Amino acid sequence: MKIKVCLLLAAGSLLGMPAAFAQKGVDNGTRFGSGQDSVRCITNISLFVPYAKNGDYKDALPFWKIAYNECPAAIKDIYLYGVRIVGWEYDQATDPAQKAALMKDLLAVYDQRIKYFGNDPRYGTSWILAKKAQDYVTRLGDKADPKLVYAWTKEAVDKFGDKCDPLAISYYMFASNQLMVADPNQKANYIQDYLKCSAIYDAQLANASGKEKTVLQEMKTGLDNGFANSGAADCATLQKIYGPKVEANKTDLKWLKQTITLFRRMRCTETDAYYAAATYAYKIEPSAEAARGLARKDVRDKDYEGAIQLFQQSINMETVDTLKAQDNYAIAAMLFDQKKYSEARKYAQEAIKLQPTMGPAYILIGQMYASTAKSIYPNDPVLVKTVFIAAVDKFLKARQVDPSVADDANKLISAYSKYFPTKEEVFMHPKLGEGKAFTVGGWIGETVIVKGKQE
User: Fold this and answer.
1) How much is the pLDDT for 225?
2) pTM of the model
């Protein structure tokens, strides 16, 4: 209401100005124009806004058009309500040619807003381009041209980077994916777009909090899932695209880091391109990611001692707990392979401490127990069976904390439960009792609740 009152007062103060001073704002670069044209501008704004606010777009339309065409820099309401008014026109139209013309008009409203209000600190160019893409795709659906959406949002992403509106980034990747689907030769471009947008989201998340951070995380997750399911992310394709480029970029640390991260995210860490990128990156600047890559190369070459040392370097440099957990798990798996069970369990337990939902670490510990059962009680075939209870407890825990390993855990539970002592064996053994606690000996040293199986 304050805006309307001010506008009407301004109109009143200008009524006495001679026609010779009249000039439209669009012509002289002012907000309202001058003389009688400024009165005309202000009057039409004061007329269309109340109609538009009430959703009466038909009555708002003629007054809005005058303001839109004659004093486009007057107020943002021209565009806030303009897209609703023209969108209403579009929705009412039935003739295809008319709808096409009105879509051009609708997009032009966004473009004109950028021209006059693109520098708005909160709702500036990247926000406007995001809304333009959203409106266009929402109204046209499958008929929307991804090339147009890509061009609009690319302007926002390239120009504003970390300051780009998150929705613009989302539509940019949507369009990039559509272009790749239409032309598989665009895979390399799509992958580069993903890396760029992923880095922007990461930077924005680092500076966000509260609800904003939650929304950004959802958008980032959607980006990652979309990429993972795009078909562009298979290891053979990544190797084909990046393999020939590693040598040419061996001194470009930023490129090398992006490539290593991409291959890790896509679980393509057993490829030559990944190993080569990690090697060059480590030479320039030792980092957790590069050390991890070299460690995996040593694993491939069965140099476990070298791999363990590099994984330990990665752990010392890494700041992300889940990645530290993965490194600890990798060391545990190699030590298990070397039958260094106690040491292997220590690393597996550290992995669980860092990532409590790491089901594979629980499974690994359970497999250690099962594989050493006979060595724990070589002379007592009944107590040997308590080791399998300890092993199954770990498999059950793995299934509980990590649904992704449920199938593997269930198979192991079924396989090793068969070796539990019978109820009769439990009853007859002097150290056991059904439902009672029993501490498994040897290097295991864990307490279990004895479960006798029914024969």
Assistant:
1) 84
2) 0.64
